[in-house]
Amino acid sequence: MSETTKFLLSEDQMPKDWYNIAADLPVPPPAPLHPATQQPIGPADLAPLFPMALIEQEVSTERRIEIPEPVREVLRLWRPSPLIRARRLEKALGTPAKIYFKYEGVSPAGSHKPNSAVPQAWYNGQAGVKKLATETGAGQWGSSLAFAGSLFGLDITIYQVRVSYDQKPYRRALMETYGARCVASPSNETQSGRAVLAQNPNHLGSLGIAISEAVEVAALNEDTKYALGSVLNHVLLHQTIIGEEAMLQLEMAGDDPDVVIGCTGGGSNFAGIAFPFIGMQLRGGASVKQRRIIAVEPAACPSLTRGKYAYDFGDTAHLTPLVKMHTLGSTFTPAGFHAGGLRYHGMAPLVSHVKELGLIEARAYHQTACFEAGVMFARAEGIVPAPEANHAVRCAIDEALRCKAEDRAKTILFNLSGHGHFDMAAYQNYLSGGLVDQDYDEGELAMALSGLPNVG
């Protein structure tokens, strides 16, 4: 097996359960609160937005939750996804490190997002829901839910952040090919969108604003539910199939990672690769190998490295419950950098919680360094990563170079969360020298953080 490049599981080896890290946490995460009463929310508070099966997953503390067979049947279109040894990248770097990546770009939508879109669409269909409203940044989630909706006969409306709507027309085309309707956000279709446009008709948009629009549509229409592509517990749960598969594949390779890396925006792909490994460490205690788990985020939207751990709204119009997370403030609008899927003001509460418990590290990079890494990776391994995934590639390369400098042969695993085939304009911009690093506005960040809810 020493020269094997791809480690492949058969379809019957695909995990039959999702892993729920809530079962193994030494301290339970703080409960979501109702913004009016500041009391923990109950299922009835979430019922206007989600079907009961997803609400039950959101609050579950069971370690294993079965993947329904109709969902597994769809997942088998591309899962299990490959684990690949990046031998050519190792050679290019001259590193003694071994680098593996779990490649999620093999899905129909080209990213990890269908891992949650498919079960969300199925559970809604089982509950008799006919329409779903959602948001999307770069478009990976929107195209994934559009794909899932086409399989289960659901009408999908997607509010796409304006800057990404303009930057990535082919993502929009993919959503429409699957049958969804894609709307630039902020839009004139909702009260929350119109309020933003009244203040700034040329607003770039943000995931917080797009979430407000989609939540508003779901809350005001009985035939419509809301679907979210990251942040919430049940979404992170669905993504753990990534790490569960990776564990089996690393056993095939006769290897075990010292470092596990994922890019982070809302937290879904990071949780997918990392939570199963964290859970194994939590269950095994000091007798189990202690790995470094690294979450990598954009320097222009650094919720884990610069945000405050506090209760905040998940959206800009304050239509959602209050959740405790690392946040830049719900009114914070990131710069229009190319990793649109990472332009979110807050981090998933579960990811934020494990960061507070000291179970993970966080690192922030500017986009030019990430594109440099993505080009290096593409020229060695042949896969052009999505701008979001480039953050994980950058960190993996840096860790491999650290091994070279220290002459230490570590094993590095990262999640390549999607391909960049719809992002070639960004690569052209980088290759022509037109891509520039962008930073957040310190004054805007201070203002956004000063407006955090006062939770007693």
UniProtKB/TrEMBL annotation:
Catalysed reactions, semicolon-separated: (1S,2R)-1-C-(indol-3-yl)glycerol 3-phosphate + L-serine = D-glyceraldehyde 3-phosphate + L-tryptophan + H2O
Pfam families: PALP
EC number: 4.2.1.20
Cofactors, names only: pyridoxal 5'-phosphate
Gene Ontology CC entries for this record: cytoplasm
Modified residues (N6-(pyridoxal phosphate)lysine): 113
InterPro entries noted in UniProt: Trp_synth_b-like, Trp_synth_b_CS, Trp_synth_beta, Trp_synth_beta/beta-like, TrpB-like_PALP, TrpB-like_PALP_sf
Residue ranges annotated for the Tryptophan synthase beta chain-like PALP domain, each copy included: 77-418
Keywords carried by this UniProt record: Amino-acid biosynthesis, Aromatic amino acid biosynthesis, Lyase, Pyridoxal phosphate, Tryptophan biosynthesis
Domain of life: Bacteria
Pathway info: Amino-acid biosynthesis; L-tryptophan biosynthesis; L-tryptophan from chorismate: step 5/5
Entry's Gene Ontology molecular function annotations: L-serine hydro-lyase (adding indole, L-tryptophan-forming) activity; pyridoxal phosphate binding; tryptophan synthase activity
Record's subunit section: Tetramer of two alpha and two beta chains.
UniProt similarity note: Belongs to the TrpB family.
Physiological role: The beta subunit is responsible for the synthesis of L-tryptophan from indole and L-serine.
Record protein name field: Tryptophan synthase beta chain
Organism of this sequence: Niveibacterium umoris
